[in-house]
Design a protein that fits this description.
By secondary structure, this protein is an alpha+beta fold. It has three domains: 26-86, Beta Barrel (OB fold (Dihydrolipoamide Acetyltransferase, E2P)), CATH 2.40.50.140; 89-152, DNA polymerase, domain 1, CATH 1.10.150.20; 179-222, Ubiquitin-associated (UBA) domain (Helicase, Ruva Protein, domain 3). It has ten helices and five strands; from the N terminus they run αβββββααααααααα.
Length: 223
């Protein structure tokens, strides 16, 4: 007697596909423009890929028309396929470790990576600093605690000199809260370059300010 055929539920099928299939692992091409948290890269074949990147990623220092290369993670859902891009394999690996934690999706992982350098984020996790992790947009206290519980024994910060930014420099950088990130994006829409916006915001002392207040203080430095 044959067994009855059981069809997979769509959500399960797509979730499995997203875990197993990583067809696009790296993209190199011309940087076209930045929009809503993503860069658009046109390959030599004329295909334009929209790739989400963390706020303050060094990839955003690329100018329009320049060649850009990103390591990517492809997230497949039932109704969408999204690409997330990173400047190096270490950043990509940390992203993938974060989304392996139950309840942490790609958007939350990108917010965490927007807190600072990869080494800084690793330091938060290794030191079990849930308060700093919870500053990321969309990451609450419970999610931060879950990340620490599942990853603190698996992650170690890079030795000084091997990280993208030396530890001494990273320690002097203010943590990038969601309000600061929003302010940086807003300044770029006003015509300032990404580097100018980041530099101006870095001169604003880290306080409990709204994005609008950060913008006002940063403009005083720029004008």
């Amino acid at each position: 007697m044959s067994r009855p055929f059981r069809r997979k539920q769509p959500e399960q099928a797509y979730q499995k596909r997203g875990e197993d299939v990583q067809m696009i692992r790296q993209i190199t091409g011309e940087y076209l423009y930045y929009e809503k948290g993503a860069v658009v890269i046109q390959t030599s074949g004329g295909i334009g890929f929209r790739v989400f990147v963390p706020e303050l990623s060094p990839l955003l220092n690329t100018r329009e028309g320049e060649t850009i290369s990103v390591y990517t993670h492809m997230a497949v859902k039932e109704d969408s396929i999204s690409l997330y891009g990173f400047p190096d394999r270490d950043s990509l690996q940390l992203f993938q470790q974060l989304i392996s934690v139950n309840g942490v999706g790609p958007k939350a992982a990108m917010s965490i990576l927007s807190l600072g350098t990869v080494n800084r984020v690793k330091s938060y996790i290794a030191a079990k600093d849930g308060k700093s992790l919870a500053k990321a947009q969309g990451v609450g206290k419970k999610s931060a605690e879950r990340i620490i519980l599942e990853l603190s024994d698996k992650i170690s910060p890079l030795p000084e000199g091997e990280a993208g930014i030396p530890d001494t420099e990273a320690s002097d950088m203010p943590a990038v809260t969601s309000q600061r990130s929003e302010a940086i994006v807003a300044l770029t829409t006003l015509g300032y370059t990404r580097k100018e916006a980041e530099d101006a915001i870095s001169h604003v002392p880290e306080e409990d300010l709204s994005a609008e207040e950060y913008i006002k203080k940063a403009l005083k430095y720029l004008l």
